[in-house]
Specification:
Number of strands: 0
Distance between the termini: 36 Å
Structural class: mainly alpha
Shape: elongated
Helix content: 55-70%
């Protein structure tokens, strides 16, 4: 037989010792290499709807503004496919 037996008392300790080196490597080498950008860019469609909604509110067209707000609420505020933003977890 080789290795430590499954369910042994020492098995979790040995795995923590081994995985600590992997965690350290990932935190120091891999994460900084793949992390990019401070925050995502605004979604252009969301932003357009927001501006049009504000315009209609100033013009006292409340019905149109409410309709635009409902459309806007179905979209994410930030661009989920922003190529300049990337996180590795």
């Amino acid at each position: 037989m080789s290795g430590s037996p499954q369910g042994g008392v020492v098995s979790p300790i040995l795995s923590n010792i081994y995985l600590d080196q992997l965690d350290t490597y990932v935190e120091q080498e891999v994460l900084p290499m793949y992390t990019r950008g401070e925050k995502r860019q605004r979604n252009p469609v969301y932003n357009t709807l927001r501006v049009r909604e504000q315009y209609d509110r100033k013009r006292n067209n409340q019905e149109k503004a409410q309709e635009l707000r409902k459309q806007r609420q179905c979209l994410p505020e930030r661009d989920p496919l922003d190529p300049d933003y990337r996180r590795l977890r």
